[in-house]
Amino acid sequence: xxxxxxxxxxxxxxIPQPHHPSFSLLSLSRTHPRLLVNLYNGTVxxxxxxxxxxxxxxxxxxxxxxxxxxIPRRQWVATGADDCHVRIFNVHTLARERAWEAHGDYIRxxxxxxxxxxxxxxxxxxxxxxxxxxxxxxxxxxxxxxxxK
Length: 149
Fold this sequence. Notes:
Elements: E1 2-6, E2 12-16, E3 23-28, E4 34-39, E5 43-48, E6 54-59, E7 65-71, E8 76-81, E9 85-90, E10 96-101, E11 107-112, E12 118-123, E13 127-132, E14 138-144
Antiparallel strand pairs: 1-2, 3-4, 4-5, 5-6, 7-8, 8-9, 9-10, 11-12, 12-13, 13-14
């Protein structure tokens, strides 16, 4: 079963109804009719937004994947999971290009900078980090959130 949305000025967008009850995030590609879905079972899926078909699916880890994003300039998918690791995959071959322990707690968000070679990550360790892929994924900035009172 599909959920159809009309998002002006685009034609109708067909989004699959998840068969898995525990998906954690949806991310639309800015360059292709694709929807990225990450699941609590450690799987990531790419669906067509044209007809809702499953295009690709792969297991990232056996722990929840809480964040995923397309990096269209490099044709990558970035994921962040409960094992504190960021993983970078080639969107076409699904080959893992890079993986590293990025935080000291669950990773809740990953997002590429719109014009710089930077991936931002946010974690339950109360930090936001900037990773520069042109510098071998060096962590170039860390921002720590202050404790709530």
